[in-house]
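Input set for joint prediction.
Command: fold jointly, output tokens.
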Amino acid sequence: MNPPKKAKNITIKDVADLAGVSLMTVSRTIRKPDSVSKKTRELVDKAITKLNYIPDLGAGSLGRRSNTIAVILPSLSFEGHVRTVNALSAELRGEGLHLLVGDNFYSPAEEMELLRMLLGHRPAGIVMVNSTHSDSGRELLLRSGVPVIEAWDLPSRPLGGVVGFSHNNVGFAMTEHIINCGYKKITFVRGPEDSDPRGKERYRGHLRAMTANNLDSSRLITIDKDWLGLTAGKQAVETLLKDHPDTDALVCLTDRVAMGAMMECKRRDLNVPSDLAITGHGGFDFAEHLVPALTTTRIDAANIGVQSARLLIEKINSQQPNAAEQYLDVGFEIVPRESTVG
Amino acid sequence: MNPPKKAKNITIKDVADLAGVSLMTVSRTIRKPDSVSKKTRELVDKAITKLNYIPDLGAGSLGRRSNTIAVILPSLSFEGHVRTVNALSAELRGEGLHLLVGDNFYSPAEEMELLRMLLGHRPAGIVMVNSTHSDSGRELLLRSGVPVIEAWDLPSRPLGGVVGFSHNNVGFAMTEHIINCGYKKITFVRGPEDSDPRGKERYRGHLRAMTANNLDSSRLITIDKDWLGLTAGKQAVETLLKDHPDTDALVCLTDRVAMGAMMECKRRDLNVPSDLAITGHGGFDFAEHLVPALTTTRIDAANIGVQSARLLIEKINSQQPNAAEQYLDVGFEIVPRESTVG
DNA sequence: CTGAAAGCGCTTACAG
DNA sequence: CTGAAAGCGCTTACAG
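tokens >
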């Protein structure tokens, strides 16, 4: 019969009243228990427990930064990013920081609105795992004064700290590697141009390697829909057989796509690598378990998260967070396996 | 030479001063532009743009709930959970809600501390993707009055809304299915007892099916380290050959583990399914691409996220959020493929 | 259509 | 060791 009156929030005032002390003393007891007499501390602790009191973090940090870190990424569909976020979260929680996730699903257009929303939470820092920053987005970020880390890239005009690697170099290195293995007719598989700026960069690296070796670089397959899924690999092989049947090596944008391609080859009785060599990118665990094991580039996605967290915390504790830019190139590694010969 | 004086935050007051109106009018312009004269609106909008003003969401919601949803999960290592979180996030952003991620890395001990931290942000709602709730955790949640959704389970004592399925039934159905296919010597692979309560529940279902069919249910393999990775599958096959070499079907805890097992079989020249049948759980995309394609249980992880979001939003907008519990059993599906015969 | 006052739940100086 | 006052950046009534 009680009217659905909203249960009043328990505030620090309630605790103070129950403990018979001032509100200030409760605040003090919570923040630095040692600065309060033992008796008071016990009284307050008891009241807190009794009332199930949980301080409102937002009220405390009014006018300052919250203990939240915003992470912006295209989506949680790419497992490389997920690993980074996972490691980031693990590293940050030791500092009492929690992640506020902002995903824009590969829509740069929504980046601004997303940024405004997230900045509205007054995060202590921001980790950008996505790579496209519009000029207005850059300005917003810069003027907000919030420490920023850009991850998974080595941007030419960094906003703050950087933890990443060169996608151009990765693209170059992989193609260079298989050229050295003896492959010449190489087809590159990439995602849609708008949504996949990093794939585009790797493609540039690929072109660089092809040109440097005087090879025909016209073989290209662009996947439009579900370009991060296994179906993309399947589709790539179908397109390959139709458009570039003389290909001897297929360079895929991710391990996942490469796996899809390998499976499709198996279904079609194409032998990997003797009929077609295949390479991936990312170095995910399944790459080495596949039969044949997949030649790929190893990116330490978790390490990117860990290093981003550390650099960010450093910046948060420093006076001029974005004054001295820090560049951390975590590098990559070519991992030759059975899906290519040589 | 400027001392590193911290850049003063732009507040609503600054906007008001620049626009030459009162602070109240700025607030009004932002929240309901129509209630303000056109001229005023233009003045204010101009000032906001000029100053790059972003309202402090925390200040506005002081004493109320923030526009944040806390999601608690063991970690982002299990891709089923990731898909749920991804869908949840996508569904929620339409409502202007952002996810605050809390992962406890399978440590129930830290659940309380994590809950307190997250509740300190005054989330508008909570989605629990993990499954162990201590009694004290339950009480905290219940007393907080925050709308709660429990996902990926059908708890017997729900805290609020529920969107999940019965792991016991999944376990039963899969084993029943392969028994009907003619398999009798079945080995069950599961994760560590403490960290994997759901795997344990599926194991119970498995036992139920074995008992119902008068089969020997003693074949069990427990994976301790890296039990969500492909290595677990590899290790399971190794253990299997040593401890239960007469096994004809291997029931794995996830598709990922099953894939690891399949790859190991391939390396050892064991034919799947003729030498050993293998089943997974989860219905991830790679399951159907594997050769042979993997028999599994299909769980619509993304749908769990979508439905959780909807139910949560409904609760948030209702008067008595946790009064009427809502149970949504999203079910599952046995998907027979090539890795089992029958 | 616009504004002055009070309050949301805390913390930061400042007194005692 | 403890407390009254002012303030953080907004919004909610209440006036006009």
